[in-house]
């Protein structure tokens, strides 16, 4: 469905993590297969839809957006380190929301749907993460 082996692997991992998150209990092999297949399929369709939306936006507004310069490898490494430190500085749920919204670029609504929590809670957790990230950035600037 995705035409990308790595993305398919990621969806498989995501599906099993989702099963653990929701506390899925296997009552029968058939029930498990139906749930796993349905969950993985919905995830694939969401990824395809999100990519389609990004392509549509790029096509419609590409000139307005313009090509942003790629950060240097050094800047990327610093950014990744900062992100890792910020993820370690917050609780697990906040880190999950940060990964969904900051790393995967999902909307608050989509992250709420995936996490099974309210959009308000996702927005609050996102603000907590952004505050932790801002503190770490300020510390880095004062040391650098």
Summarize this structure briefly.
With 144 residues, this protein is an all-alpha fold. 81% of the residues lie in helices and 0% in strands.
Can you walk me through this structure?
This protein has about 140 residues and is an all-alpha fold. It folds into two domains: about 5-65, no CATH class; about 75-144, Winged helix-like DNA-binding domain superfamily/Winged helix DNA-binding domain (Arc Repressor Mutant, subunit A), CATH 1.10.10.10. About 80% of the residues lie in helices and about 0% in strands. It contains six helices and no strands. It has helices spanning about 5-20, 30-65, 75-90, 90-105, 110-115, 120-144. The N and C termini lie far apart (about 45 Å). The mean pLDDT is about 85.
Largest sheet: none
Structural class: mainly alpha
Per DSSP, what share of the residues sits in E-state strands of 2 or more residues?
under 5%
Uncertain stretches: none
**What is the highest CATH level, the class of the largest domain?**
Mainly Alpha
Query: Rg to the nearest angstrom?
Result: 18 Å
Q: Tell me the span between the first and last alpha carbons.
A: 47 Å
Number of discrete domains = 2
Overall outline = globular
CATH topology heading of the largest domain: Arc Repressor Mutant, subunit A
Number of helices: 6
Element-by-element helix/strand order: HHHHHH
Report the CATH superfamily of the largest domain: Winged helix-like DNA-binding domain superfamily/Winged helix DNA-binding domain
Q: What is the average per-residue confidence, as pLDDT, rounded to a whole number?
A: 84
Strand element count: 0
Amount of helix: over 70%
CATH architecture classification name of the largest domain:
Orthogonal Bundle
